[in-house]
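In line with agreed milestones, the collection of sequences with tokenised folds has grown. A representative record is reproduced below.
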Amino acid sequence: MDQIKIGKFIQEKRKEKGITQSELAEKLYISDRAISKWENGICMPDVGNMQDLCEILGITINDLFSGEVVDMKNNEKVLEKNLLEMTEMKEERDRQLLTLEIFIGIVSTIVLLGSILLVGIFELSKIPAAIIITIASIIFATGMGLALRIEQIAGYYECQNCHHKYVPTYHGVLWAPHMCRTRKLKCPKCGKKTWNKKVIKK
């Protein structure tokens, strides 16, 4: 998708409606800085804002992704192209998130182990040692919770029984036995509990 083209299209349609960036931002409950980023092609609107944005600008989702008003004759063909590009964008974003998950996990672990070593090496008294370990434990727990959340939402888990691909609940991922990114989960389709692998493609 051409983000520059889409940004210019959003700007063009906004001006046609006689709406300022601030007014559009107010209608969408976001900052006018976000609107500026869209219009400059820095980023795309969030999925949660797209439908409201299209209604305000009087365009379709297909028009938005194309960066122009789509001729009804070509609508199906353009829609198929846009859906394919959206899928590719999601897959790339999921890969980046899973890389971020590893980074968060490593940093959180280093913080915890580093604090334990620090306390041991400098033989700190009980109170300073307890404070350092407590802070490090909070950072570790927060980091692991965030990393687990990323693993839950990025990509899919594939059932080894029926090969259904799905996004499980956070609770399900949290309590599932696992080996790296393979978790023993209950498939919502077939109901079987198997070792489900993390996959990127639907």
